[in-house]
């Protein structure tokens, strides 16, 4: 049975996934303006001979693999295919199918599909990278899940499992030391405001600021941990307040501003090894010159780690959508936060944010105006649009024999055309 989800001008994509759960893959691609045919049961399908791309959830792949699936659906061998692997998937991966690991953002999935379609009839021209162990996207999914669990417990008046949060924070810290995969995940757009995703993003951004400030390992782990649970008090507010589609009234704003108190109150009687945490939650909305809440205290009285959470919280909120406005780009959000330094946030912390996040984070990939693909290996605080990059693929997307490093500040005739997701990169 084939179901046409949407008539769109975009490419025709056949999605094979079970409908027993939420049809996540089909929904993601439909919202990205692909024309999607959903096939929940390959054995009962009527055919998909007109498709331009085949996207298959590993859990419904038939025993005969992609060859059998193509035969059943009537899909030609030169039509590109992508396999979506969920954690724990046990499936043989052939050379003629690209792979992405779930969870994956809608942006990454859409980009990978477009990448496969760039070279018609050539499956291997541009392929998504095969998963190699626990990727940043998998860890990011775990962070969101942990934040969601903590918020659910808080809504029920229960203290979250801080031991589990601590262990996850240590893993996040280790990942941030290795690369910027999590940072790139935290900057990707999401369609609507989600408190768990917001908390995950704040934790990641706070961890990067901590690294930029060269604070100790223990404080870095603590600030990441605090980021995951910083909004526990929000979960204790009425859901009607949290999901208000417009701007809040003055009375509603006053009620919202009680959430640091509610969060700190929830942790009353916390075990001694986490005794530092309630103060961070209580102070994260305080500002340098007393403009914050709930107490209006000045900079010297604000917990130092709470200052990092506060800056991360504002940057995350600016760079993602709210019901009453569209998101700013990462660059626009950085510019807005930069204007707040010295008045709302300490200048050194803002500089650390700009250095660590930048418009094009370290380790991210960009396509230059020359058509070449480079990896960002250095940032320029005075011009965040012109980082240092190492050219790894030429303008035909073939690997270069000898990667070369260029500083875009010194090459005014070369600019960044766009940022690339890892799913778009050529396989070499």
Unreliable stretches, pLDDT < 50, 5 or more residues? 1-8, 119-134
- Give the integer mean of the pLDDT values: 81
CATH architecture annotation of the largest domain:
Orthogonal Bundle
CATH class of the largest domain: Mainly Alpha
The number of helical runs is: 15
The helix content, as a percent range, equals: 25-40%
Task: Label this structure with key terms.
single chain; 428 residues; alpha/beta; Rossmann fold; Hypothetical protein af1432; 3 domains; 6-stranded mixed sheet; 11 strands; disordered N terminus
Write a structural description.
The structure is a single chain. With 428 residues, this protein is of the alpha/beta class. It has three domains: 115 residues, Rossmann fold (3-Layer(aba) Sandwich), CATH 3.40.50.2300; 222 residues, Hypothetical protein af1432; 60 residues, no CATH class. It is 39% helix and 13% strand. It has 15 helices and eleven strands. The strands form two sheets. A six-stranded mixed β-sheet has the order 1-3-2-4-5-6, covered by helices on one side. α1 links the parallel β2 and β3. α5 crosses α7, α7 crosses α13 and α13 crosses α14. The chain is globular and about 65 Å long. It starts with a strand and ends in an 8-residue tail after the last strand. The N terminus is likely disordered.
Secondary-structure map with pairings?
Blueprint: E1 3-4, E2 12-16, H1 24-31, E3 35-39, E4 53-57, H2 65-73, E5 81-85, E6 98-101, H3 106-117, H4 136-155, H5 162-178, H6 181-187, H7 195-213, H8 217-229, H9 239-242, H10 250-256, H11 259-266, H12 277-283, H13 304-318, H14 330-338, H15 347-357, E7 365-368, E8 373-378, E9 388-393, E10 399-407, E11 416-420
Parallel strand pairs: 2-3, 2-4, 4-5, 5-6
Antiparallel strand pairs: 1-3, 7-8, 7-11, 8-9, 9-10
């Amino acid at each position: 049975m084939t179901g046409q989800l949407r008539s769109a001008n975009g490419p025709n994509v056949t999605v094979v996934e079970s409908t027993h759960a939420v049809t996540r893959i089909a929904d993601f691609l439909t919202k990205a303006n692909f024309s999607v045919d959903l096939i929940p049961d390959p054995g009962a399908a009527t055919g998909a001979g007109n498709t331009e791309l085949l996207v298959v959830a590993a859990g419904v792949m038939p025993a005969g693999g992609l060859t059998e699936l193509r035969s059943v659906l009537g899909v030609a061998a030169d039509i590109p295919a992508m396999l979506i692997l969920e954690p724990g998937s046990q499936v043989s991966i052939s050379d003629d199918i690209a792979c992405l690991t779930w969870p994956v953002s809608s942006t990454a999935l859409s980009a990978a599909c477009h990448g496969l379609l760039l070279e018609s009839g050539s499956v291997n021209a541009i392929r998504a990278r095969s998963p190699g162990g626990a990727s940043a996207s998998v860890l990011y999914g775990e962070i969101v899940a942990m934040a969601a669990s903590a918020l659910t417990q808080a809504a029920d008046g229960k203290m979250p499992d801080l031991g589990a949060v601590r262990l996850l924070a240590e893993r996040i810290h280790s990942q941030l030391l290795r690369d910027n995969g999590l940072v790139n995940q935290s900057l990707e757009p999401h369609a609507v405001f989600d408190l768990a995703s917001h908390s995950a993003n704040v934790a990641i951004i706070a961890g990067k600021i901590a690294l930029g400030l060269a604070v100790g390992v223990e404080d870095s782990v603590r600030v990441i941990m605090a980021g995951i649970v910083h909004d526990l008090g929000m979960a204790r507010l009425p859901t009607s307040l949290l999901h208000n589609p417009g701007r809040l009234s003055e009375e509603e704003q006053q009620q919202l501003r009680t959430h640091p108190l509610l969060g700190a109150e929830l942790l009353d009687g916390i075990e001694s090894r986490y005794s530092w945490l309630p103060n961070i939650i209580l102070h994260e909305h305080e500002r340098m010159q007393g403009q914050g809440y709930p107490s209006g205290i000045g900079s010297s009285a604000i917990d130092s780690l709470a200052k990092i959470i506060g800056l991360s919280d504002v940057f995350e909120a600016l760079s993602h959508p709210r019901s009453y406005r569209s998101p700013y780009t990462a660059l626009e959000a950085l510019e807005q936060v930069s204007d707040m330094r010295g008045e709302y946030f300490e200048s050194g912390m803002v500089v650390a944010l700009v250095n660590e996040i930048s418009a094009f984070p370290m380790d991210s990939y960009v396509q230059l105006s020359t058509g070449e693909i480079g990896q960002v290996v250095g940032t320029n605080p005075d011009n965040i649009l012109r980082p240092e990059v190492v050219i790894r693929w030429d303008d035909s997307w073939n690997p270069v024999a000898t990667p070369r490093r260029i500083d875009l500040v010194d090459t005014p005739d070369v600019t960044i055309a766009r940022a690339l997701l890892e799913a778009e990169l050529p396989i070499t």
